[in-house]
Design brief:
Layout (H helix, E strand, L loop, with lengths): L2 E2 L2 E2 H17 L4 E5 L5 E11 L2 E9 L8 H15 L4 E7 L3 H9 L3 E6 L2 E7 L5 H7 L1
Parallel strand pairs: 5-6
Antiparallel strand pairs: 1-2, 3-4, 4-5, 6-8, 7-8
């Protein structure tokens, strides 16, 4: 049996299946980044908290693959999903000692939204446009 650290491949699949069920059952999404060997190399989920706001959940990239654009592609996928749902506010939080996240999110347009205890909060505002409306008014 293949092992990943102390987690077997079978238990890794079970964990991912549970994540997917939880997110989908509440009407949110959960995306996986898959490599050429059909292995999970990254993931991200969403939690919609209002008709115009959602939180990023569990954005994770395998450590040896960080800095290769996988996180940016996952984030872009969530942003496209959010825009299709009329979401205008995207939020995230992470431990204040997590320097990789502190660099990643501002580089992707997030701004500081404060901190509490050991957590840092960031937010990104964006606005989706109805392309046909724009075309009709030009």
């Amino acid at each position: 049996m293949t092992h990943i650290g102390t987690i077997t491949l079978e238990s890794e699949r079970l964990i991912l299946r549970r994540f997917t069920i939880v997110y989908l059952s509440r009407g949110d999404v959960f995306y996986l980044a898959i490599d050429e060997s059909d292995r999970v190399v990254g993931m991200v989920g969403t939690e919609t908290v209002s008709p115009t706001e959602l939180w990023l959940k569990r954005l994770f990239i395998k450590p040896e693959l960080k800095g290769k654009g996988i996180g940016g592609k996952l984030l872009s996928t969530v942003e496209k999903y959010a825009a299709s749902k009329g979401i205008t506010t995207l939020r995230t939080k992470f431990a204040d000692w997590y320097s990789e996240a502190a660099r990643f999110y501002p580089a992707k347009g997030f701004i500081d939204a404060g901190s509490e205890d050991y957590l840092r909060y960031m937010v990104k505002y964006f606005y989706s446009c109805n392309q046909s409306h724009i075309r009709d008014t030009i």
